[in-house]
Structures are given as C-alpha cells and as structure tokens.
Amino acid sequence: MNHIQGSLIYEGKAKRVFAHENPDRVLIEFKNDATAFNAKKRSLIEGKGRLNCKISAALFELLELNGIPTHFLELHSERSMIADKVNVIPLEVVIRNIATGSLCRETPIKQGTMLSPPLLDLYYKDDELGDPILTERRLSLLDFISDIQLKEVEEITRSTNKILKEYFDSLDLLLVDFKLEFGTNSSGKLVVADEISPDNCRFWDKKKSDPKERILDKDRFRQDLGGVIDAYEEILKRIEKQSSHAI
Ligand code: UDP
After folding, report:
1. Is-same-fold flag (8-84; 87-246)?
2. Which residue has a Cα nearest atom 11 of ligand 1?
3. Assigned fold of 87-246
4. 8 A C-beta contact, residue 32 and residue 47
C-alpha cells in the first residue's frame, strides 16, 4: 500500500476498487480474471487487466474530449486508474448497432441485422438475478431512477455510441454493441463509470469476412475461439496507432 492506494473497498469479477487519499476518488485495478455467462465460465488471462485498463483509459479520454462525462481521472499504472468515487446506478445499459448475442437468442431477429436506429436495452444489474432485462413499467416499479435521470442516461448512451462507432469505424472496426454503467459522483453529477473494453463491447474486424475470425472481443472467450489476448492486443494497437482525437 502507498499514500494513494488505501484499503480494498470492493472486489468484483474483473476489478478491485481501493480507497484513495482523496475521499471523492478511488483507485481501480483491472484483474486478469475472465468470466462469462454470469461467472459460470472462468479463466485467468495473463495481460487482460493491463489491456482493458489502457483501452478503457483511451476511450474515456476520447469521450471526455467529446463532452461525455466519465468517472475517469488518470492512469495510475498500466493496470490501474484513478476515478471519481460514484454511487453506482444498478442498470446495465446496452446499445446495439448490429444484432447478435442475446438479442438473437431471445428474439427471431437474424444475426448481423443492422439496427437503425440503434437498439437500447436496459437490464437490472444484479448477479444473483442474472441481470434481467427491464421493461419501462418494471423500471418505474423498482423506482431507483427518476425519469429525468433515465432520459440523461439514454442520451449519454446514444451520444457515446455515435462517438465510439465513428471512431472505431476509422480503425477498421465495427462497433457491434456495448454495455455502459453509470454512477453519480460526489457532486451529484451523472457520469459513465465501470470500463469500456473488449470485455463489454463487441468489435468485428472490417478487414475480415469470416464470422469467427473477425471477432476481436470477449466472444472469443465465451465461444472458446482462442486468441483472446491477441484480439485485445489488436484493439489497443489500433487505438494507439491513431491516438485519441476529438471527432
Ligand atoms: N455485456 C456486458 N455484461 C453483461 C452482459 C452483456 O458487458 O453482463 C455486453 C456484451 O459484452 C455485449 C453487450 O453487452 O457487448 C450485449 O450483450 P448481450 O445482451 O448480447 O449478451 P450476451 O450475448 O453477451 O449474453
């Protein structure tokens, strides 16, 4: 421990959160643990923590440059970042540009269907319940978010999607879908929290047509396709080649 990294506050599936000397901040350490299917499938993937931390930092910086509020403050090491301490809103906000994954398992919509406008799905963040999808009415029954804050969450998610989709397009990557989490910081401001990495985004390589070869995200782990770390490295390599810029 040092003066910045205090005691462990919380340990999740992919990250550890430590207290910071400034009570409004935390230090987030990215772990090498990989989990899927609500942690029924687990593995250790050497290097994943570093890659997800660096990718997330670059994407949070890109979002901030484009006016999207995030919890990110600065990188602390290759595997850890300093962020706003937030009250997490128990929502997983998924936005989809191309149909795949649960949307195709749960509806007759065909794999690869372009979704225009992008489809925004809300899930209740609760591991024990398996993060169930929410209807508008269930959400209002649960009563943990105001209509105004929900509107803001949806607007930020749609703007984030526009920025990231255009950015990844310029890196020859299709941004298929991703999940965001939100929190409120010590000033009560709504910010994008958690991470933005191949663990919670789907990326397809525009240069490849084979439906398995083109996958550059956690689906390689979920589907036992191998080459998980190479895929994550490829995402970071493309980001670093074209350093973050305002679009
Ligand atoms: N996702 C996530 N955490 C979850 C569920 C989904 O980060 O607990 C991400 C996932 O990586 C993908 C998007 O949200 O980018 C949509 O996932 P989907 O609903 O298709 O679920 P899956 O097929 O992964 O079960």
Report:
1. no
2. 200
3. D-amino Acid Aminotransferase; Chain A, domain 1 (3.30.470)
4. yes
Nearest ligand 1 atom, CA 178: 15
**pLDDT 10s per residue in the chain (247 long)?**
455 789 999 999 999 999 999 999 999 999 999 999 989 999 999 999 999 999 999 999 999 999 999 999 999 999 999 999 999 999 999 999 999 999 999 999 999 999 999 999 999 999 999 999 999 999 999 999 999 999 999 999 999 999 999 999 999 999 999 999 999 999 999 999 999 999 999 999 999 999 999 999 999 999 999 999 999 999 999 999 987 454 4
Compute the residue count for the chain: 247
The C-alpha angle 177, 178, 184, rounded to 5 degrees, equals: 150
Q: Shortest CA distance to 175 belongs to which of 165, 163, 166, 185?
A: 165
**Mutate-to-test residue for ligand 1 from 95, 157, 177, 222, highest number of ligand atoms within 8 A of CB:** 177
* Domain layout of the chain by residue ranges: 8-84, 87-246
Angle of the 228-241 helix axis to the 48-65 helix axis, nearest 10: 30
8-84 has which CATH code? 3.30.200.20
